Amino acid sequence: MGIVNCTPDSFYTGSGVMPCREALRMLIAQHLDEGADLLDFGGYSTRPGATDISIEEEWSRLKAGLLACEEICRERGVKPCVSVDTFRHEVAQRAIEEFGVGMINDVTGGQYDTSIYQLVAESGVQYVAMHMRGTPRTMQQLTDYDDVVAEVTAWLHERTKLMGGAGVDASQIILDPGFGFAKSLEQEYQLLAGVDRIRTLGFPILAGVSRKSMITRPLGISKEAALPATTALHWELLCRGVQILRVHDVAAARQTVDLYNYYEKIALQR
Where are the domains of the chain? Predict the structure, then answer.
């Protein structure tokens, strides 16, 4: 899943493009050229400390990205799965109705706008429910877990029951542990080691660790220097059963996924 942040304040500038048509087209084309299976468009920054914006501002940013994607895909005759990173049902509904997006990526897992579940149920799109506490402004102060793996797993399980009650089919649901959201550095790695427990819930897992502080802080490096270490964690996530990697650097992730699949094929022959 290639990230297309249509925002001025993404935590990693390599993925952020303000709604400038040519910049958007270039990033989308690059992701497709490098082998992205999915494109994830976001108009609301969820980096730590990010400020709130209106629904109209979020939609204006997203619409520019989705229009650019529509142009590129029409020119190339391709139709990748397009995801919209939003927790507002009004924004999700517009994206589904106007652009036919096939996935909603909700960093709140529906806890701030439960009406999004009904929209997902009625539209039949895929839905990513991510674990987060608080808001982007407050989440880094909300890390008081007794057992982060158990509590994240239980929270995601409860979300799946609420979704089912709203009519969302199990085949539509994807879970995201929420790396970088309301977890301390130590908890990030405890959660990474415990992804297997989330898998027992029986749903596909998406993970986003690309160039995040869980990588840069232990190594004392910048986000710009974090691609090799990101790739190492991507391999570990694949080993633990994660099916979707949400990434800034599609080429490196594509090679990692392809090599992992080859490794799995050879290993199964033993």
Answer: 2-268
Q: Active site includes 63?
A: no
Q: Walk along the chain (270 residues) and give the pLDDT tens digit of each residue.
A: 999 998 875 554 554 455 577 888 999 999 999 999 999 999 987 766 667 789 999 999 999 999 999 999 999 998 889 999 999 999 999 999 999 999 999 999 999 898 999 999 999 999 999 999 877 777 777 789 999 999 999 999 999 999 999 999 999 999 999 999 999 999 999 999 999 999 999 999 999 999 999 999 999 999 999 999 999 999 999 999 999 999 999 999 999 999 999 999 998 787
SS3 128: strand
DSSP category for residue 205: B
| Identified catalytic residue from 63, 212, 223, 254 | 212
CA 51 to chain centre: 19
Question: What are the beta bridge partners of residue 127?
Answer: 104, 173
Which CATH number, 3.20.20.20, 3.40.50.300, 3.30.980.10, 3.30.300.30, labels domain 2-268? 3.20.20.20
Find the catalytic residue in 25, 88, 159, 246: 246
Classified as helix, coil or strand, 270 is coil
Beta bridge partners of 245: 207
Is residue 197 flagged as an active site residue?
no
